[in-house]
Specification:
By secondary structure, this protein is mainly α. The protein contains seven helices and no strands.
Length: 219
């Protein structure tokens, strides 16, 4: 955060809380999930949480004229955070399903056909989840951009941090979409062409908002 003292906020619990430590231990372990896809979804969730927090600090008496917009942003950011958390879980499940599909028997034509169909379905789902993360990052970035001009200047840096989180969510998701669609047919992979094309624009928007925040701080 920027210029708010700790006394103006709730006491922050230690980052060594069990749930966070367990997640990081699992992330660091030699195990297939969670991985980069879950991290991307959590980037989006954290970006949404930052936007909601800045909006909640933009409720001073002097902000009254913006209250309808701020309230809408709070609600939208909170909803995006919940969806992104769900996608983190979905990514782990999708990645596990891909591995399971590749382990299916292929000793008969029927089993081979069933295995191929299962692999295709699993890969599509494994690409769909990060594509949905891109959608959430896009929405959160839009909310951050809308909030920026009216935000409480004492927490303006968190708008920039939210933009950076959205950028990371989209760029990381791109990797996970790309790796899965390379094994799909052209017809199946084409359904992800639109979301992949949007990522470059999203990254540019995030970088621009970050730069705008830096400029506002220096001004």
């Amino acid at each position: 955060m920027s210029q708010l003292s700790m006394s103006s906020r709730e006491t922050v619990p230690p980052f060594g809380e069990a749930a966070l430590v367990r997640y990081l231990n699992d992330l660091a372990a030699k195990m297939p999930a969670p991985g980069g896809g879950a991290v991307a979804a959590l980037h989006a969730a954290q970006g949404a949480a930052l936007v909601a927090m800045v909006a909640r600090y933009t409720t001073r008496a002097k902000d009254a004229e913006h209250r309808p917009v701020v309230d809408r942003i709070v609600a939208a950011a909170d909803a995006a955070r919940e969806r992104a958390l769900t996608l983190a879980e979905a990514d782990a499940a999708a990645f596990t399903a891909v591995g399971a599909a590749y382990k299916l028997p292929k000793d008969t034509p029927e089993r081979l056909a069933a295995r191929t169909a299962s692999i295709t379905a699993a890969l599509i789902e494994a690409a769909r989840v990060p594509a949905a993360v891109v959608d959430e990052a896009d929405e959160v970035l839009t909310l951050a951009g809308e909030l920026f001009p009216i935000a409480n200047p004492n927490v303006i840096t968190d708008i920039g941090a939210a933009a950076d989180a959205c950028r990371a969510a989209a760029a990381s998701s791109q990797l996970n979409i790309e790796i899965n669609v390379t094994s799909l047919s052209a017809t199946d992979s084409d359904r992800f062409a639109t979301v992949l094309a949007r990522i470059e624009d999203l990254v540019t928007r995030a970088d621009t908002l970050h730069a705008d925040v830096v400029q506002a701080i220096r001004a």
